[in-house]
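Annotated sample (chain length 574).
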Amino acid sequence: MRMIIQNRITSKEVIIAMSAILGVMTSVVTSDHVVNIAAKVLIVLLIEELLIILLYYRDKIAEKIKHNKLLCVLTFLMVFILGCRLIRFIPKTYVSNYSREVYRLLLLMGIVAFTTALFLIFVIEAKIHIVFAFLAGIVGLIFMLVFPVGQVPDEVLHAQCAYRISNKMLGLDDINPKIGYYERQTELDYPELAITVGEYQRDWFWSELGKKTSDTDIVVAKDIKIASVPWEYTYYIPALGISLGRVIGLNASTTYLLGRMFNFVFYIALATFIMWRIPFGKELLFTILMFPVSIQQTMSCSYDMIVILLSLLVISEALHLVIDKDELNMRGIIRGIAIMVIAFALLFPIKSHAYFALGLMFVYVWMHYKNITESKVLKCIRVLIIAGVIVTVGVFAIAQIYPLSENPAYIYWAKENAYSIGYIINNPKNTVMVIANTVNAYWFGYYSMMISGPLGWLNVGIDNSVLVGETVLLLICIVGFPKNVVERISKTDRIVWLIIFGICMLCIVCGMWLQWTPISHNAIEGVQGRYFTPIVILPMLALAASKIKFRNECMKLVPVVSTFFAIIAYTSVI
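Output written by the structure step:
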């Protein structure tokens, strides 16, 4: 009888449920299109959050405000800044009435994202991986609308590759990708939006969403050449969304958007799992995954999503196996190793094996389970470094007497040859000059492009405050680790992580040097900061310290601030 009484629905729960149902029904009945419905549903969500706070957490919130004055000041400051940025859109002139409604929806989604962050963290006190799933979903959907399909780097090519996989899923015979591929007439007529990100392009894209098409005739896109790559599996997820859009008969815009959505939902699901599994550095991982550039790439049809996930999966499982070693049984160890093997096997072929050094994480795990002493590991690392330097100097010296053959690749866009390994070794002075010029000209650009952009095709500027704020947030995460966590990280761990990051970075830069840099250029071209996103957590964990003791409530503010800067980023665009 007591259990029955305890499980009875209270009047407060009835009020919340009824208000939600009435709000949603009113939104549907009183709206003439989906944008208005979505906007009103978001308003209902805000009201529901307020009701829950008033009915259940009023005293708790009052207590937090009383004992966390600094936290309240920072929150108020962020609310004030967001309010000032949103108010400036009230007198804005819009391309069309529909465009005005979508802009208002985007602004409302930003408000919902920020309030939801506060609600989940300080009211519900949800786990950080659950918070990420909700907030990344909202922010990712905003970015999908702000950047139409094709306005993310190389997305047109990625969407075409996914479309070709979709053809196989739907039973269409494949043709030589060097000739072209099958697609519907509606996709063939999809306009080129790849370069310009403007109001007129967005207005056209938004006006097409949700519509069906009659242009479903299958044609051959002969003018489009798709390179066949060995990692086609990276396009399976967006191909599922594209296939669904084609089966339903949706137009090109909505079909490609479904491909994006499938890609991003998969990303959120697996990223949430990774954040749950990683034993420490969850706030740091949250910040990295919520970088504006990270959100832009993962909400598109790009395989960057798969690269980021697989890399972080290898890293998180390795850390889980090492840090939580004493708490794992044999079944847990086998499971962790199996996840690492599968993730690394899928990651290895991508981007010309640029992330192969993450395979050293297996050595890192083996080293801990064999209880190899730190002195032996450091001695081994010193020997390898010295041997590497000697071999490198020797190769360059011998090449001055017996020059190596040069077989450069041809760069189609520059209409000239690229650098080759033989040329680099045969000309050490020029090699040193190229490296120095690259570091001098691009180091800050790599860092900026990894965090805040420019977004789009590197032509959409973002407020400098986003880069500065994210940098401060990263520093707080790095120096604010709990003391008990820092004590568990050995000197060997830090060195191994830095070596793995260094090798991956070297492979990425050298790959672009040999495949994308014309021999007439005196700096390495084509490297983008987003290439370092999958591995950037390693050097940051290597720098982990407990120099400043932050209260738990302050560290909870990290996801809120990260969401705040993501909102600042997209309001800079629109």
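Annotation: Strands lie at 181-184, 218-221, 410-411, 416-417.
Annotation: The chain has three domains: 11-126, 155-277, 350-557.
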